[in-house]
Design a protein that fits this description.
Elements: E1 9-12, H1 22-32, E2 36-39, H2 49-60, E3 66-69, H3 72-77, E4 82-85, H4 92-99, E5 104-108, H5 112-116, E6 125-128, H6 145-155, E7 160-163, H7 171-176, E8 181-184, H8 186-189, H9 194-213
Parallel strand pairs: 1-2, 1-8, 2-3, 3-4, 4-5, 5-6, 6-7, 7-8
Cofactor: Mg(2+)
Organism: Desulfonema limicola
Binding site for Mg(2+): 70, 89
Amino acid sequence: MIDKKILRFYYITDENAGSFTPFEQVKTAIKGGASIIQYRNKFFSSEHMEELVLIREFCKNRDVPFLINDNIDLAAKIMADGVHLGQDDDSPETARKILGKDAVIGATVSNLEELACTDLSCCDYMGTGPVFPTSTKKNAKPVKGPAGFKQVADKAPVPVVAIGGITAENALLCFEHGASGIAVISFISRAENPADNAHRLGLACELALTQAVKGKYE
C-alpha cells in the first residue's frame, strides 16, 4: 500500500506549455514541494526519449516517484516507478504483471458509474475529477465540485487524488472533502510565475498534512 503522503502534491507534465519544457516544469514543481511526478505526453515519440530519461534521473536523485501516463511498455522500458492508466488503457492487472509488485499504479475514475465497474484491486490510488473547471483537458468529464468529489472519494477502496482546476487557493478544500492528494498541471505549467505557484501550492499541501496529523480531517 502506498504511503498517502507521496500523493499529497502530484504534478503532471504539460507537453503544450511552449518554451517551458516538461523537464523545466518538473524541476520547478519538485523545488516547490511536489511529491510525485507523472509524465504525460499524448504525442510521445523517440525524439522525446532524451528528455524523458533526464526527468526520470532528476526524480530518482530526489527520491520522488516518477510515473508514466497510459503507456505500460514505456514505463517498463525506462524503468519508471509506475504508471497511471485511463479508462480506455490497458488494465491495472496487466500493469501489475508487467511492472511488478513494487510499482506504483494509478487509475482514473471520474464518477460513481466508473467506480462501480473498475477493478482497483491492483491499484495504489485513483484520480478523480475535474473538481473545478479546467481548460487543460479538452474532453474532460463534467465538473463535479467538492461535494461531488467527496461522493466518489467516500466509496473508493484506495486513496484518491483530486484533479481539475486546482490552485493553491482551493487545494485545502479538496483535502477537506476526502482527497489524499491534489494533482495539478496548468496551475504551474501555464502560470505567469510557475515557481511562485509551485511554492504556494507546496505550502497548501504542507498545511493540509499538518492539519491531518492534528486530526482535523483525513
